């Protein structure tokens, strides 16, 4: 089993302590199951809402409303469950070769654990949402217009990526700094922009 001090070096080799599961929606078909590594706590859920459980039925993730907010408690380390399938079993190295483990950019994450990591932000509206979760989008506002920087962490070009804009942005023109073509459509009050993305680009709305 063992502990994890360095994720790339240690995590691929440790054995799971338990299995956890949770349902991000009301439909039981969406239940996610994944292993737990390095640490697990046993606790009682008193006055809280159970969101996930270990395979023995004990609580794994709970939430509790308080005033205008909500708190979450997780009885394991969801970040390790998230990273585990993305890390290969390779000897640790820190050399400068392009294919060294030190330069590896993980991509095959555990999506079920990702939902738990994102729970505290579930009620926060995002101004720009990409169809590919591993594309990072940042909105920059200025008097001259809006720039949405896009960084592709998948390690491969993406065809027909969509970016859904859910805020009042200029509509006179939209273009990619890299010169690619952009297709626009409407989804109710939102705008959907579709284009191809390689490593990185910037959407410019004026």
Structure description:
The protein has 206 residues and is mainly beta. It has three helices and 13 strands; from the N terminus they run αβββββααββββββββ. The strands form three sheets. It has a five-stranded antiparallel β-sheet with strand order 2-1-3-4-5. A hairpin with a 2-residue loop joins strand 11 and strand 12 (190-197). The model has no long low-confidence stretch (mean pLDDT 92).
Describe how the helices and strands are arranged.
Blueprint: H1 7-10, E1 18-22, E2 32-36, E3 49-54, E4 59-66, E5 69-74, H2 78-83, H3 111-117, E6 128-130, E7 135-142, E8 145-152, E9 158-165, E10 174-176, E11 183-187, E12 190-197, E13 200-205
Antiparallel strand pairs: 1-2, 1-3, 3-4, 4-5, 6-9, 7-8, 8-13, 9-12, 10-13, 11-12
């Amino acid at each position: 089993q063992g502990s994890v001090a360095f994720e790339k070096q240690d995590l691929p080799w440790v054995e799971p302590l338990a299995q956890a599961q949770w349902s991000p929606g009301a439909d039981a078909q969406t239940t996610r199951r994944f292993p737990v590594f390095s640490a697990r706590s046993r606790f009682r859920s008193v006055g809280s809402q159970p969101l996930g459980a270990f395979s023995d039925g004990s609580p794994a993730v709970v939430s509790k409303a308080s005033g205008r907010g909500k708190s979450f408690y997780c009885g394991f380390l969801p970040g390790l469950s998230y990273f585990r399938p993305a890390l290969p079993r390779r000897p640790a190295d820190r050399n400068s070769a392009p294919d060294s483990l030190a330069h590896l950019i993980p991509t095959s994450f555990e999506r079920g654990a990702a939902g738990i990591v994102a729970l505290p932000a579930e009620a926060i509206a995002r101004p720009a949402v990409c169809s590919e979760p591993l594309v990072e989008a940042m909105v920059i506002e200025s008097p001259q217009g809006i720039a949405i920087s896009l960084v592709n962490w998948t390690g491969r070009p993406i065809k027909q990526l969509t970016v859904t804009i859910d805020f009042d942005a200029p509509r006179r023109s939209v273009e990619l700094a890299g010169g690619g073509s952009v297709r626009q459509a409407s989804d109710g009050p939102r705008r959907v922009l579709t284009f191809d993305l390689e490593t990185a680009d910037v959407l410019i709305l004026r």
